[in-house]
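Example record

One chain of 568 residues, shown exactly as stored in the release files.
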Amino acid sequence: MAGSRRSRPNPVLTGPDRAAARAALRATGLSGRELAQPMIGVAHSWIGTMPCNLNHRVLAEAAMRGVRSAEATPLEINTIAISDVITMGTVGMRTSLVSREVIADSVELVGRGHALDGLVTLVGCDKTIPAAAMAHVRLDIPGVIVYSGTTLPGRFRGRDVTVQDVFEGVGRHAAGELDDAGLAELERSACPGAGACGGHYTANTMAMAMEFLGLSPFGSMDPPTGDPRKSEACRDAGVLAARLVEDGLRPSAILSRDSFRNAITACAATGGSSNLVLHLLAIAAESGIPLDIDEFDEISSRTPLIADLRPSGRYTAVDLDLAGGTRLVGRRLLEAGLLAGDALTVTGRSLAAEVGEAVERPGQQVIAPAGAPFAPSSGLVVLRGNLAPEGSVLKTTGTGTRSLTGPAVVFDSEELAMSAVQSGAISEGDVVVIRYEGPRGGPGMREMLGVTAALVGRGLGPSVGLLTDGRFSGATLGLMVGHIAPEAADGGPLAALRDGDLVTIDLDRRVVDVDLSPAELSQRLKEWEAPPSRCPAGVMAKYRDVVSSAAAGAITTRPRSRGRTENP
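Predicted structure tokens for this chain:
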């Protein structure tokens, strides 16, 4: 590149009246030449409280080298992150989904305040990924999102393990099937270093979604942390961001109905996390592109399961990379006519051109042809009924049972449910109900992996159901129905349930129902009184007051029309 040029004057830095702004930036070490170049933000979530983003500083340096090599000027931006794994099962987990909004808001604020010309955002742990997409969409400036990588699997007693095994090990330990020494050994073995959780859980699901949306370069998610290809991908992203500034290619030109449907298809076909629903609904709302919760069911029902990935399968994200990566997933689906191949990507090329470069490792068993899948349909089911008039979500991979009718065992918090599971109070055939854990009721819509993994660990996974207005980790297995809307805190039908009510979960009929007459259900809701708020002040109270329903993505901004406002 002979030298990157802005597609528009920078209002913060251009002209004699902006001399004071330039003087302040000279104090950071920038030269006059650098001030005249396009300003590219390099945003990341390095934080010392988790392993997921520990490599962000190193990768940010690589991205900034790429920006400089393209004769643009990088400006490093830090934001926060919350670890789902570390906070799981505690009140701290209420902050996780809130952090998605805070990350998106903070990157947007810096982008607007400093009138950035372009943006590279490095993402790692679960919420950083949709947050980055939301920020890029709001700013609508040229930019690239790059996933910082999955961790390598650990080894425990001769087999690969991930953090999912530790959560399930806690349940086995409580059941007396794993002793103290075994649990301690598993704890030491499961997470060998930096990087996001190693199965096809939420982080890897959302990283894949970014590529099929067109916001991340194809193949950039594949290399694990520590692989030299990851630094190369970040350097290339810096170069690409500078080129995009010159070309003027923005997220609004990339994102379309087809790109969202492509992302749903790819993630469903690989057994991705149910959190995909919440996050893609949020990104679509920010971008002004219509997307309905029922489309996830419609797409999943016609999409075969072509990847044998954990939590329901055998392999980790590292194995996916070795098999051929996201490009091979895309090529398989495109050959089957399941993707819109003409959808644009951030490289300026079509999805078909990108996945056409897939290289399959001979003999790999991770990614199947669409004509010989691991299962004929995949992914995500949306259930409705008198308990979920606005919908609910269940991930079918890893779910052997297709229907269950059983007595409700009702809990008003995750902690109460976890205590019951660990004490042996849950029996085969029960339907565990955890309510007041939705976006407003939590507040924060906690993940229930601690409870679901404990059920699996105690051998109850295939024989019980679970309903919640909270959500689930990408590592969840079983007949677990989440995202129930409207939530209990808003007076949704879940608030009317009592112990012993007969609840039916039926995947084939797409139903989640309680055996109560409309009159009885209505009378109970009339008598219902909302519980006091758990968070009367602070950021959680602010979130509670503005967050939307899970059926709308649990967003805190007003959904926009397709038109864009000027930046800043």
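Notes: Residues 94-113 form the longest helix (20 residues).
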